[in-house]
Amino acid sequence: MATAWQALGSEVVLLARGSRLLPHLEPFAGELVAERLREAGADLRFGVTVSSAARTGGEVRLALSDGGRLTADEILFATGRAPRTGDLGLETVGLPPGEWLTTDDTLTVTAVPGGWLHAAGDVNRRALLTHQGKYQARIAGAVIAARACGTPLDSATSPALSSTTRATGAGPARSSSPAAAPSSASPSPARAWPSSCTPVTVAITGEIPVERLWHAVPPFPTISEVWLRLLETYRYQRARL
To answer: Distance from CA of residue 89 to its chain's centroid?
Structure first.
């Protein structure tokens, strides 16, 4: 709100109890925001709280914990958020009403046995943002549907594993096109390059022919050359058939 009111032309004094802004993010993020606020003319004071506040006439007079005093037209307190779970009947499943719902990465409430209760959005306190709530709802929906259909769920492992078809023993794999890039039914260790699995995923789902993939030249020396080695291996195996 300090950013918004400063942009609207108000003279803003921001009082923070902690030593920096946005303590839940990396320190540099809070430093960048603080620098931008100062450049806009805001007065930032850290390690200070309001001891008392009183309105006199049209002004608000504040006494601060460090002994200082402020006079302002208005005062805005950021008091945080509280979950509205008091009337959902959580006590019937052994959860305290009015509390946050702790979930795992599949948005399943961990304190309820059976894995049938899911929580998406602010109520799980993972990311109190509207777009994150929408994203979580999609994840929770996919999890519920996958479990109903008996489909394996994605999981994170160390080392990271990647596969382009269903795992061995999980039933027949789906093949999009004979001309698509080669795939393996067994997961392969991604080791230090899990993000490099994205290009091959795009290639397979986009049904890019192997002949065309040869023209996607990876930079040297980079880990991206692993896909060139896979193509060479595929060509060698095809030649032996």
So the answer is: 29
